[in-house]
User: Fold these one by one.
Assistant:
Number 1:
Amino acid sequence: MEFKDKTAVVTGAGSGIGRATAQALAREGAHVIVADIDPAGGEATATAIREQGQRATFMPVDMTDPASIRAFAAVAQAQFGAVDVLVNAAGWGRTAPFVDGTPEFWSKLVALNFVGPMQLTQALLPAMIERASGAIVNIASDAGRVGSLGETVYAGAKGGLIAFTKSLARETARYQINVNCVCPGPTDTPLMAAVPDKVKEALIKAIPFRRLGKPEEVAEAVLFFASGRAAYITGQVLSVSGGLTMAG
C-alpha cells in the first residue's frame, strides 16, 4: 500500500473533493487526519473510513482563523508526529457580480482559499524540512488559471494559490519536498448543487466530455501527486476538467 505508515492531513474533508481525497488516501494505507470546520461532516467522513477498516481521525479547524490553524497543527503533530502528506482541499465560493461584492465577503474568500492554506502549510512545513521528505498538494481551481464569470475574487485567490505552489516548490525542492497543484473544473460537489440548473447545463455543454467531474476523479490526481510516482515532479499544475480548459 502506497501510504502505509504515513500520516496525511486533508482539509475540507467533510464533503466533496476533500472527502473523496481522504477516502482515497486511507484506502492506500494512510492514517488520515480529517480536517473540517463542520463537525458532523468531518465525523461522517472519519467514520466512513474506519468502517472500511482504515484509519482516520477527525480534528476541527477553521481555515479562516489563524489561531485555529496554529492550534490544529500543534495538536496534530503532538499526537501523530510529522505529517507526510498535506492536502489543502478546503475551499468555498459563491457566484455574484464583482461590483456587488463587499470587503467582508472578499476577506472570507481570500482567507479560506489562499491565506489559510499558506498558514497551515507554514505550520506543518518545518517538520517536513527536518525530515527532508513530504508532499504538499494544493487544490486550486481552473478559475484561477483562466478566470470565471461571477467568481472574480475567488479566481484571484485560487490564482494566488497556484503561484504560491510554484514558488514554494522552488524553496522546498532542496529538502526533497514535492509541492504541486490540482485544478478541478466544474465538479459534482455540494457547492455545485447550489448552482442554478441553467448554469450547470451551460457548463456541461461547454465541457468536451459533456458531464461534470466526480470528486473521486479529482482525488485520483491528488493521490498521484502525493505518491512516490510523482517523486520527480514539483511545481506543477494539473487541470481535471474534462477538457474544458485545454491550453496549448
Note: The CA atoms of residues 192 and 215 lie 11 Å apart.
Number 2:
Amino acid sequence: MPVGIFDSGLGGLTVHQEIVKTLPDLPLSYLGDSAHAPYGVRDADDIFRLTCKATERLWDEGCDLVILACNTASAVALKRMQETWLPKDKRVLGVFVPMIEAVTERGWGDNSPPREVGVKQVALFATPATVASRAFQRELAFRAIGVDIEAQPCAGLVDAMEANDMDLANVLVNGHVDALLRRMPNPQAAVLGCTHYPMMRAAFQEALGPKVKVYLQGNIVADSLAYYLDRHPDMKGAAGASRFLTTGDPINVSLAATKFLGRPMTFEKA
C-alpha cells in the first residue's frame, strides 16, 4: 500500500524527494496532472474536480493516504474534499498546515489556542488561486495572533518552470519580490507557497536579502508525514519502489522532470 503524492505538474517532486530522504523505505506513487497544469489560474470548482479525479486515480494504485503536494489544491480543494467527498477509509492531507506550524513555532498536531509568535511580518509567494483562497491567512489565524501577511500572486512562474525556462523564471521572481517589497519593505520570513518554488530558492533569497528566512515545504512536509505515520501505522505500506505517473505525454514529462530535478526520471501514462 503506497502513499500517494499528487501535484498539478512537476512541483510535487520537490516534496517527493524530501519524503524519500526522510522515509527511504516508504513506497510512493506520484501523479502529476500535467495535461491540465497549471492549476493556479483555474477556478475553485475546476480545481476541486481535477483534484478529486487525480486522487481517485491514486486510490486505484492502492494509495489510501494521498498527500496533495500542490498548494493550490491544498488551499482551494482540500477542505471541501474532507467535508463533502472523502470516504471514511481514505485520507487526504495537504501541505499548508505543516508549513504554518513551522512558521508559528508549533509542534506537529499542536491544536492549542492562537498565541503570539516571534515572526510578525510574513511574505507569502504563491499562485494566483492560492492567494485568492486566503487559506494561508485563515489557517495561520487559528494558530497565531499579531502576524501581518503580505501575499504576492506569482503569475507565470509555474509556467516558466514547467517549460524549463529558467531565465524567464529568474526575471519573474525578481519582479514578484520587488512588487511585494513595495508593500512590505521588511519581511522577517518568506513562505514559498508552491512546491515548484523551492527550485528557485536561491533567486528568492537573493532578491529578498540575507536577513529574510525563507521557508521551504519539502522537508517540513516529510517530517510531518513521518509523525503522522507514527500515529497511523496502518497507513504505512511495505517497502517498494516509487512509481511516477502523468496525465501528460510520458516522454515529454520525463524529459522535463529530468531537467527539473537534475537526475533521470521516468514517467508512465496515468
Note: The CA atoms of residues 5 and 67 lie 5 Å apart.
